[in-house]
Amino acid sequence: MDAPTEGRRSWAAAFGDMAKLIPTLPLETRCPTVPLRQFSGFWLPEMILSGVAAVHTRFEPRPDDIFLASFPKSGTTWLKALAFATLNRAQHPPSDPGHPLRLRNPHDCVSFFELPSALSESTGGAQEDVFEALPSPRVLATHLPYSLLPERVVADSCSGRVVYVCRDPKDALVSGWLFMKKHTAATAKGAGGEDDDVPPTYPLQDAFELFCAGRCVGGPQWLHVLGYWEESRRRPDKVLFLQYEEMLRDPWTNVKRLAEFMGCPFTVEEETAGTVDAVVELCSLDSLKRSKGNRSGTTILGIENASFFRKGAAGDWRNHLTPEMAARLDEIVDGVLQGSGLTFGGAANDSISV
Ligand code: PAP
After folding, report:
1. pTM of the prediction?
2. Per-residue pLDDT averaged across 76-80, rounded?
3. Spacing, Cα 31 to ligand 1 middle (Å)
4. Where is the Sulfotransferase domain (predicted)?
5. Which residues are paired to 161 by β-bridges?
């Protein structure tokens, strides 16, 4: 039995009584807005833990489910848009002016299955699985580490598939820090600011130290990535491992890989007709940023739609981290990933090379 499977079995009892377990778990309160608890080696928002229990006890997987997985701030929103647009292209042609992705945030088109509200208790006290209503194949998302996915989702006998997107941890850290600062400020003022225009209440140095200690949402980032990376090598037919930087460099090829993996490859006719290009364009940062649905309003957890779209670049960490900070984080990550076959490109090319 592999380690994640063994872990899943030994936590089975905990999932049954998460409310009692939560107060006993190690607590981290230095990240703004979300107290974190350490569970099975990862730091997760306290309020997510009941959702984690729910996905293990209540969620009913289907053989054709597709899970989009990521460490936060690694390309989740983009992957959600690409998967949704690709899978639903017959019903919603990407050039359609009324396409759902032009009217709604990608987070409203593809839900995180561990959000506590997703598998909620109905008003009558009965337990409800809101995903039951979705037509197959369903696309769901998760920030959970691989080892915390329910066994029924990842078992060899289950034909569900997982797409993981990873990103240079330095960019994920900077993106998360700016997002957190902006979100905190917006919540306080009732309005967001301009790009990078954030109040100095949460120093980057603090966020950096916490990130390096693995004490951030979903952290340690390198173990999150490693879990999916190893599984993608063990079962490439079940886990597709994508890289944000590679997607930026060549979105076309990566969308085609995604479509093939999801079981809906683009036909030659579609390629010739420009459907792949249309999906790439629809889901581009600029297009989503400018769309009606994202210029105002809020999405999951009351977060402003616009907060999910900033620069969308590889290597923006250079504008925020010192070379010493970058070297320190690289050393931590490289030390853990050594021998795994996965390396982050570091300063040389701002990208991950595998
Ligand atoms: P989440 O985990 O909270 O859902 P996620 O979407 O993973 O966030 O990450 C947000 C980052 O993806 C932002 O990066 P930045 O802060 O470095 O700019 C955001 O700009 C980027 N992003 C969002 N949509 C796209 C897109 N369509 N193409 C490329 N990058 C994108």
Report:
1. 0.91
2. 98
3. 20
4. 63-340
5. 66
